[in-house]
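ARCHIVE CARD
CATEGORY: sequence design from structure
SOURCE FIELD: tokenized fold
FIELD CONTENT:
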């Protein structure tokens, strides 16, 4: 899980919220060492050490997932037509503004 470790280096806050792909005892220990609360849904195949999930915090993850889903409705954002990062970011900002207005 090298990419998850890279993400954790820049993580700030009181909790880290993730989906079942990040369900690992090693990763959970690294999160706790940073004095953060682990809010990761247990993998359904896990038989031991299933941890309880803080539903109130996990709802925030659902809202973020819904936001990304609605952003992907914009074809230019989903397929990334723009060649430069600046133009792509501008398209994402336009899509976010459109969502906010509607």
């Amino acid at each position: 899980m090298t990419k998850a470790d890279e993400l954790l280096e820049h993580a700030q806050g009181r909790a880290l919220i993730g989906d079942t792909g990040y369900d690992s005892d090693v990763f959970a220990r690294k999160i706790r060492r940073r004095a953060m609360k682990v809010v990761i849904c247990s993998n359904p195949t896990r038989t031991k050490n299933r941890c309880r999930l803080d539903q109130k915090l996990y709802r925030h993850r659902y809202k973020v997932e819904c936001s990304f889903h609605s952003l992907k409705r914009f074809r230019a954002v989903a397929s990334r037509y723009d060649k430069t990062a600046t133009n792509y970011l501008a398209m994402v900002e336009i899509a976010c503004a459109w969502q906010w207005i509607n």
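CARD ANNOTATION: The first helix runs from residue 2 to 9. The chain has a mean pLDDT of 85.
SHELF: design records, drawer C
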